[in-house]
Design a protein that fits this description.
The structure is a single chain. The protein has a domain of 272 residues: Cathepsin B, Chain A (Alpha-Beta Complex). Strands 3, 7, 9, 10, 11, 12, 13, 14 and 15 form a 9-stranded mixed sheet that branches. It has a two-stranded antiparallel ribbon with strand order 1-2. It is globular, with a radius of gyration of 22 Å. By secondary structure, the protein is α+β, with helices and mostly antiparallel strands.
Length: 450
């Protein structure tokens, strides 16, 4: 673990031991202009990053949504038109307390732009602040390990958020009974379906909103796609967890379930504490509340007034709190435009994804390079997905391969799983899982958790 260094507040002289802690102190006790903390929305009219984005933002990309729904329903004629966006909350990173977790499990948020003047992915209570500190972000290659001390001011400086941040159900005490029943009866439930292959009918068991076998199928489709120069994929056991047809606003939870599908299937660290099963939405809420009790990103409780049994939006902050609270190692990276090289955020994101999958890959020659790495939790303004691979095409363009919990796998995709041969246009099906520059350039900032 890196040695601690003292940092003194220029206003009151108090001693802190990390860039993050001193920024938290400055925001809480010495806000700009002498004002108390206020929301991002109050200080700027620019459509920049906010904690949570209301679902009404779906209307911004309505045409793209329609196109994507057609694709996922198997409409081949319209399948190439895919480019979608959906909305979901964003909450950022991190208050970690070394007292409760071994120091080797704690990773500090890092950015691909060390020289920027504004904190990009901060805890929600810090997002207003601009600073002239040049070394706020940790090294973009090596993640520093930092010891944090419990500090009551992290909660005292937080304010209750509303519908613009937590969604249309920001003030509900309990989700409706019909939704509780739906989640308990249909979420993760295995069903038996009939499949006809080579003239023979057989019964198979599938979990419609937690599909297995999608990664191996994507490998086959990418192999047959002539436009693919090379591609990387994560561990083949990762499931595509998607929403149920009547639910909404649970994308953050669904991405956590995708991440935990890797942990459970590979029996990685955290498998036992998860009970060797993918946690339900209710389990995840309990884990997050427990993590807040332990002091991990505990400002979230003040801002949300608790999430247990509700439909309030969650994001990266809550995902990180849960994993750290369970002793599962993770790190968060904030990515924004580099002010030195002028490299846009989406290019840095694509580079980060390729670096991640290629770093420990023993195979750098094959067209499709299958790894045993976990997927990456991926957040941009208004929505989150899970990165399960990276693709470079013959024309030089690059794509993220993602699982988007907003959409379930089409019946045509499900029918291709385990088939001996695939006689289809691979690009028509891959479009649902590709996110290229055309989509990513809409956003100026990203956050990934791995």
């Amino acid at each position: 673990m890196a040695s601690l260094r003292s940092i003194f507040c220029p206003f009151c002289g108090i001693e802190r031991f990390s860039d993050y802690e001193i920024m938290l102190h400055l925001e809480t006790f010495h806000p700009e202009g002498g004002r108390p903390l206020s929301s991002f929305k109050k200080i700027t009219k620019s459509p920049i990053w906010s904690s949570h984005i209301p679902e009404t933002d779906d209307t911004l990309y309505l045409k793209d949504v329609v196109n994507n729904l057609e694709l996922l329903q198997g409409n081949k004629d319209d399948i190439k038109r895919l480019e979608e966006n959906q909305t979901e909350p964003y909450t950022a990173t991190t208050t970690l307390i070394n007292k409760f977790v071994p120091t080797n499990l704690i990773k500090h948020a890092k950015s691909y732009d060390d020289e920027q003047e504004e904190i990009v992915f901060k805890p929600r209570c810090l997002r207003n602040r601009r600073t002239n500190h040049k070394n706020i972000h940790s090294n973009p290659v090596k993640t520093s390990e930092i010891r944090f001390k419990p500090e009551s001011s992290s909660q005292e400086g937080s304010k209750r958020l509303g519908k613009s941040e937590l969604g249309p159900h920001a003030h509900e005490d309990k989700m409706p009974g019909w939704l509780i029943k739906l989640l308990k009866e249909e979420d993760g439930v295995t069903k038996t379906i009939k499949r006809t292959q080579n003239g023979k009918s057989k019964e198979i068991e599938i979990c419609p909103n937690m599909m297995m076998g999608i990664i191996p199928l994507l490998v086959r489709l990418l192999t047959e796609d002539k436009s693919t120069l090379y591609a990387y994929t994560c561990h083949p056991c990762v499931r595509h967890v998607s929403r149920l047809k009547r639910e909404d606003g649970f994308c953050g939870y669904r991405n956590i379930q995708i991440m935990t599908s890797y942990i459970v299937s590979t029996e990685s660290q955290g498998c036992d504490v998860l009970g060797k099963k993918i946690p339900s939405i209710f389990d995840i809420q309990d884990y997050i509340e427990m993590a807040w009790d332990l002091g991990f990103n505990s400002h979230g409780r003040v801002e949300t007034n608790g999430i247990r049994g509700t439909r309030k939006y969650i994001g990266t902050s809550e995902a990180q709190a849960m994993f750290c609270g369970l002793g599962i190692p993770c790190e968060v990276q904030g990515i924004t435009k580099c002010k030195i090289t002028e490299t846009p955020a989406h290019e840095l994101l694509l580079t980060a994804a390729e670096d991640y999958f290629s770093y420990k890959s023993a195979d750098l020659e094959s067209k499709i390079r299958c790894t045993h790495l976990p997927p990456i939790y991926f957040q941009h303004q208004g929505h989150s997905m899970t990165i399960v691979g990276f693709e470079k095409r013959s024309d030089g363009s690059k794509n993220l391969i993602v699982f988007d919990p907003r959409y379930f796998d089409s019946t045509k995709i499900v029918e291709l799983i385990d088939r001996a041969s695939i006689n289809v246009r691979s690009d028509a099906f891959l479009g649902a899982y590709r996110k290229g520059i055309g989509y990513l350039k809409r956003f100026k900032e990203f956050e990934i958790l791995k």
